[in-house]
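ERR on first pass: missing label on line 2. Operator R.T. fixed the label and resubmitted. Corrected input:
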Amino acid sequence: MKKVAIIMGSDSDLPVVEKAINKLKALQVPCEAHVFSAHRTPNAAADFAKTAKENGFGVIISAAGKAAHLGGVLAAYTTLPIIGLPIKSSTMDGLDSLLSTVQMPSGVPVATVAIDGAENAAILAAQMLALSDDALAQRLSDMRAAMTAAVLEKDEALQKKLQA
Amino acid sequence: MKKVAIIMGSDSDLPVVEKAINKLKALQVPCEAHVFSAHRTPNAAADFAKTAKENGFGVIISAAGKAAHLGGVLAAYTTLPIIGLPIKSSTMDGLDSLLSTVQMPSGVPVATVAIDGAENAAILAAQMLALSDDALAQRLSDMRAAMTAAVLEKDEALQKKLQA
Amino acid sequence: MKKVAIIMGSDSDLPVVEKAINKLKALQVPCEAHVFSAHRTPNAAADFAKTAKENGFGVIISAAGKAAHLGGVLAAYTTLPIIGLPIKSSTMDGLDSLLSTVQMPSGVPVATVAIDGAENAAILAAQMLALSDDALAQRLSDMRAAMTAAVLEKDEALQKKLQA
Amino acid sequence: MKKVAIIMGSDSDLPVVEKAINKLKALQVPCEAHVFSAHRTPNAAADFAKTAKENGFGVIISAAGKAAHLGGVLAAYTTLPIIGLPIKSSTMDGLDSLLSTVQMPSGVPVATVAIDGAENAAILAAQMLALSDDALAQRLSDMRAAMTAAVLEKDEALQKKLQA
Amino acid sequence: MKKVAIIMGSDSDLPVVEKAINKLKALQVPCEAHVFSAHRTPNAAADFAKTAKENGFGVIISAAGKAAHLGGVLAAYTTLPIIGLPIKSSTMDGLDSLLSTVQMPSGVPVATVAIDGAENAAILAAQMLALSDDALAQRLSDMRAAMTAAVLEKDEALQKKLQA
Amino acid sequence: MKKVAIIMGSDSDLPVVEKAINKLKALQVPCEAHVFSAHRTPNAAADFAKTAKENGFGVIISAAGKAAHLGGVLAAYTTLPIIGLPIKSSTMDGLDSLLSTVQMPSGVPVATVAIDGAENAAILAAQMLALSDDALAQRLSDMRAAMTAAVLEKDEALQKKLQA
Amino acid sequence: MKKVAIIMGSDSDLPVVEKAINKLKALQVPCEAHVFSAHRTPNAAADFAKTAKENGFGVIISAAGKAAHLGGVLAAYTTLPIIGLPIKSSTMDGLDSLLSTVQMPSGVPVATVAIDGAENAAILAAQMLALSDDALAQRLSDMRAAMTAAVLEKDEALQKKLQA
Amino acid sequence: MKKVAIIMGSDSDLPVVEKAINKLKALQVPCEAHVFSAHRTPNAAADFAKTAKENGFGVIISAAGKAAHLGGVLAAYTTLPIIGLPIKSSTMDGLDSLLSTVQMPSGVPVATVAIDGAENAAILAAQMLALSDDALAQRLSDMRAAMTAAVLEKDEALQKKLQA
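pass 2 clean. output:
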């Protein structure tokens, strides 16, 4: 199976990014994670993107905050799908990260998920890979069914609580 | 090849959506377009999503404005990747469409592109399908190379203009 | 009397929603509360809305955060009035929840109250039911009079405090 | 049947408000419209609200822009449900009108619809009255079914257009 | 001297409002403070405004949060200058309070100060009264001179700290 | 009577500012208008503020857009009340002008009116001067009464229109 | 003298950028302008930045809209000062361009000017170069004096107009 | 070498500003810091700016929050480059500070860095001075190389952590 790369702009993003790593593991999708900054290590970021396909990656998740250029920088060097994960930072409540990630000019998309939405970045990557992997597609369906069941169980628990 | 579906919440979205249709045609990706509203035709939208995979679709683009629930509604009924295309409407400059589309809760992602970013929605869909289609991947690379060349030509034209 | 349903998208919304439950109890309006997610349990949400009228419900309060589609999804399957209660989540200070709830397209309204405004959601539901229930209308008037008296008492207490 | 009142803060709001009047007529809901300003004619606004119930009104729609206090002022003098219709003005794209209308403090709700969402204000008023009027409830269901059919017809038209 | 009235919409605003009371005391401007809600005690608020002038008040400070209608409601019943003090509440970071207060329609101004800017509300009130009170004008000038001196002292302290 | 000064940061603000001039004339309040920029003519702005009181001015209206520093700059050199009139410019819909004007730090208030709210700036200035001018206070009351009558006439006209 | 480079992300930015070119010409600062996209021609942009210093450039102005990554991309490859000029595009009123440009992470600054503030970008570049060029510093002082005079002339013209 | 001045509007800004002082020290750039308020000590601020050049300063960093006029006030009295450092205050999450600083009118630029971006303000100042100081330019290059190395080390550490 093609691998998923998770590139974060700073190791301070790791507490959020770890949720993506764990979700990919739960879906049995191989992944690698790196700290590459669009601004401090532009060559490393560009090189990673340029060689990602030949190195067996299918999707790249880019996690960055503030003026979050990392997704766009990676997208500039590959036509693999890039998933943008805007990280909430200490000011502007994540709006800067979101707009910097999603408002890409025509020609070079970044598939953006919610601010701090690390689990959804992982699921979206898996959905892309599942287009040609029926077993993974089944695991996604199972995960969804489990989510549905979990909500219904919470509803049952609520009924008991309210009647108590 | 798997098809791309483009679902728009209103036929007033067609002028924006047509750019996605044309881009998919240029990339030789088969697509279908439909007008299904999350609120006015919820059953049609749900049925489309439930049967999309078996009907040969690989990716669904959802175009909607204001409180743009269509992407989320489609995503609720399938684990195919959903691309959310927020449409700018007459108030709030598209911020409502963007936030309604991108801020999905954990478990059910919508891959969001820029407000009115129809071409990028199409390219992103093609990038996903290209994960298992080398010929399409090549067409994406060629399209990117053409874009690069076009910018460089514009730079040359600018140099001539400035020296004139 | 017709019942009020309170549907919350996640059980994490319960601390806010409980204020609505308590206010409805104080107004002697029968209510039920459920955890149904627009995205994780779309069928349960749709089924609830479709059968709400025949099951004796008159008004549905929908509590959800982030890309809050729950109100719109419920409204799509019934013509009972839907009250949207936007829940503040960890990013965007509730603006995403508010816009996702209130900016509904023409034809399918969601009656939106303030972010985290659970008590007002309950009072609004009661006001709707009181249109055909004079006793409830009287209880609403009494509650308003008590609120007025409470403010005037606070003003008196302030006068004493300032003169001390 | 109880009547719906539409109070607008300025006669410049009439082009938006007229859509609400027309929708109520289409639903055969009797309505009256007035120009009363919360700030320029506070007594007229207060008097209207105080006597609305005894004068046969069941619901009041309040249309106002900028610092839109009208909904709150009317709500302060009655426990009838007040529907707030924020009007987009020449600055701030309607955000001021929306927040001034929807963010009501606990105890005095205003049921807010989308910015310039006049049709939805009318439909919401009808939904409230329909709680005790089965014929009106049926007309709302019929209107919804017609909306559904209209979207499906537009989808058919789109299919023909795309295949042409 | 004419008195300043400080009306707050809720006694929860008192911690902010107290700074205005203290500043007025420091400037030897007589003031009264009241808790009157635009929505819960509309008659008390209106009556206060109607009789403020004859009761010896020259300026009214209105402190309120969220959909802050209090300033507008007071302004509707008097032509005395109204100072609007937007209070930051638990959501929206005070933007709702600010826009609800400042964006008044033509004809009925509210002189708005910064969010939670209680001291400035007091100083502004004193500046208005000082237009016909030279002693108060002098106290304002003295207060300004003291502020200037305090900043220059802080600069001196900083120089010592940096050289240490 | 003390005069009102209207300082605008650019002569491009004149179309908005003229409404303030006309309203002051209608209220028989003497006024002067000047173009002084906080950034291009800081000395002229500072000198005007420093000598405003001795030159017979009671109130200064400051009209400026974008990073609107003019109000603060004038306020720094006088303790006369400064009214800030935020002007909407070509970007940001006036939000930059509003926040730059209203969010003054403690000690130096600027009494802010709505974006482009020139008439209210004039009325507010008159209200301040009327604190010690009963004839002007009467003209303000008359103007308010005329506004009230105008709204009621518009309501009557609407009734005729709707019944026609 | 060191040259100023103006890099724009798209030739559609030229109408705004031309004001910077003209202002630099007026200040006799040599400049070159190029169309290089951060996303479509990342190598050209990177190469330009890497060699800018040795090619005689002292300052780079980066003009870009939407998710404006160009300034950050150029800054990543040089320690020359980068001036970010956010361009207003068709949605979000320039807020996306501004935040994408200004909110740079620690270590790699972009000196940001106002949205569409092309003249200021040019003046700022000249101010930087004038640190070691007294003649240019004098031309900047002269330009400022001319601006001051122009405002004072406009004030005189206004006085004549108002007295007419 | 020319010195850098750091002017802060309040000594409460010192915890943020200290990062700029430390960064300038690390780059061996001489600097002075002062507390001068645009509104409380306008003369001190103006005098500092007027004489900054002759006193050996090359660049001025202006740190201020809320309605942050300090950068513009300093810029009005000098043609030295002014760097604006918007400080996040207790409301509005720094948006007011940012817009008040960056949206300067044409003719008088303020080079704005990120909200609370004190280190970048210092680096930007050094970059300007390095235009005519090769040794400083080298120190900036070295600092950048160290930053790059630090990120790559963090990536290596992450690889070890993930493999453990």
